[in-house]
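dude i think i finally got it to work??
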Amino acid sequence: MINNALRLIRIYHDLTPTETSQRLGISRSYLSEIEKGSKTASIDVLNKYAVAFDMPVSSLMLFVENADAKPKTRGAQQFIADKALKMLDWVATVADDRETERVGRP
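look at this
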């Protein structure tokens, strides 16, 4: 879930993976693995996102799955995180559509 949130944050800011990795100070391949979900973002990487995108780490922590949480808490967290991801995805799609219209791409 955190991997998708981080990818959508990058898309929302209209950055390429290369630009994002440079902004974060991590390798392009590591960013790719995080976004694919094959590697987990460390707290250090989440801090870098928070600084680079001027947002609190706590906002990112919403998307970190907590296996130790009580089922009721975990269910509520997942519900809220899913809704937030859908909203981020919608915003990123709208922004991409506007950019396509602006430059006249098909």
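The CA atoms of residues 56 and 87 lie 18 Å apart.
im so relieved honestly
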